[in-house]
Amino acid sequence: MIETVQATEALRRQVSAWRAEGLSVGFVPTMGNLHEGHLALVRDALRQSDRVVVSIFVNPMQFGANEDLDAYPRTLAEDQLKLEAVGAHLLFHPSVEAVYPEGEAACSAVLVPESLTDILCGASRPGHFRGVATVVAKLFNMVQPDCAVFGEKDLQQLRVIERMCRDLDFPVRIIGSPTLRETDGLARSSRNAYLTESERAVAPALHQALQGVAQAVAEDRGRIDEAVASAVVDLEARGFRVDYLEVRDRLTLALPEPSADRPLAVLGAAHLGRARLIDNVAVPA
Amino acid sequence: MIETVQATEALRRQVSAWRAEGLSVGFVPTMGNLHEGHLALVRDALRQSDRVVVSIFVNPMQFGANEDLDAYPRTLAEDQLKLEAVGAHLLFHPSVEAVYPEGEAACSAVLVPESLTDILCGASRPGHFRGVATVVAKLFNMVQPDCAVFGEKDLQQLRVIERMCRDLDFPVRIIGSPTLRETDGLARSSRNAYLTESERAVAPALHQALQGVAQAVAEDRGRIDEAVASAVVDLEARGFRVDYLEVRDRLTLALPEPSADRPLAVLGAAHLGRARLIDNVAVPA
Q1: In this complex, is the C-beta atom of A9 within 8 Å of any C-beta atom belonging to chain B?
Q2: Is B280 exposed, middle or buried (0-12, 13-18, 19+ CB in 10 A)?
Q3: How confident is the model at residue B159, as a pLDDT?
Q4: Predicted ipTM?
Q5: pLDDT digits (tens, 9 = 90+) for B91-106
Q6: Percentages helix, strand, coil for chain B, rounded to the nearest 5?
Q7: What are the structural domains, with CATH classification, of chain B?
Q8: B16 vs chain A: nearest CA distance in angstroms?
Q9: Residue B8 in contact with partner chain A when CB distance is under 8 A
């Protein structure tokens, strides 16, 4: 079974021992309920570093009051088996009380500029990226890794973490890892477990819609508004409640400038039954 | 002359080389214009660690729009001589452009809870402690020290940094160092240079006023309001414009609870001519 520690002191002791041997350390922060997408991040970290720490922590600070904090699936024993099988070296599984001894509302916070945190998912989840940036800063200070791997499925989260690291000079290299998909295109996500059988059959339409917009925009950047509007109508007709569907600069997440020839992405979030699904695709160059 | 580096890469190279030798690293962040008070911090750091890094950086993010950012004294050559003489090992002197490549307003920030940052100096200097916490987080990530030394003269700053470190799990031990004073009691400060000769003669009255309140409160905790009011009247009569003068819990900076037997401090800030002087003293137990 993978070695599992709850206390920051025990974590730091192990990482220090590795450092003393001259070994590099990679880090994959997760909320657990691990699927193939997470394991792909661990494999990326293993390729980049001698030892890999995975954390499992369902972070209350990044959940809104009406969100699924309590319902979020917790499957530690299965997660441990998967991490052992993939070859991760240490699982860090702190308690909420250890991470937020005075409660998350009383904790100092990391604020990434609003231009990055108040758009897209941040617009419908106020405070979400404050919670994400804060817990990742804390975890970076606990683990002190050389690199950390984040999935591109949560592209805005990746950009927020990159920005925090650059702005606050964290000595951690951030690695983005491509989205892993089911054979029908649905992005792997722990929240897919919320889908009923019939919703699961409809779910890949989100990815198809983003692909459709990406293809249309690749052919003609002047057609963004039209392509997005038609995709939203199509998704709503299939039973999605669309939260946003937008074309953005893939690196800065700024609104695209018509004249600039920068890489673009199409990002979307939509409710389907109990699940809120998010996904994004690159616009072909 | 003390080795001086401007680039974070050069700083990290030197610190890594020390780490590889098994040496511990202490850190003293300053805004330069070094006086005996700063050198006492360096001596403390030297007692606690094998190598000591001092930074000199006048941090624009902690100055308000109407404050003395431009006037703040910059005396690098003299500072280097003093640091060499006291035995510091490395001076880190980054440019504003290196610390805030996109400007400080566009930089991610560290927010310590308002209960600690919006009182005392924070009440009259909005955003000040946001700037302090952010630059110290950045410097900690650049230097990666084992310990860092801060003067107790800036007691609120010390408490803000302690809180930030604890809340965000920075692996840095924070050490508070006693206030160094002139023989007449005036706390050493770079801003004392703003005083005219006659103001300098009056300046120790701030410390005397704080001492008077501390003595009165030590004798009778029920007399706080009366002692503070009389001290303020006395200071204003001598030409000070009092910003605040308060009795607070010395560790949490919360308002004192009459029944509790916790350590107290008297903190004050007052304008005298061009200078804004701050000081604090412990209430005798």
Answers
A1: no
A2: buried
A3: 98
A4: 0.96
A5: 999 999 999 999 999 9
A6: 45, 20, 35
A7: 4-177 (3.40.50.620), 190-282 (3.30.1300.10)
A8: 12
A9: yes
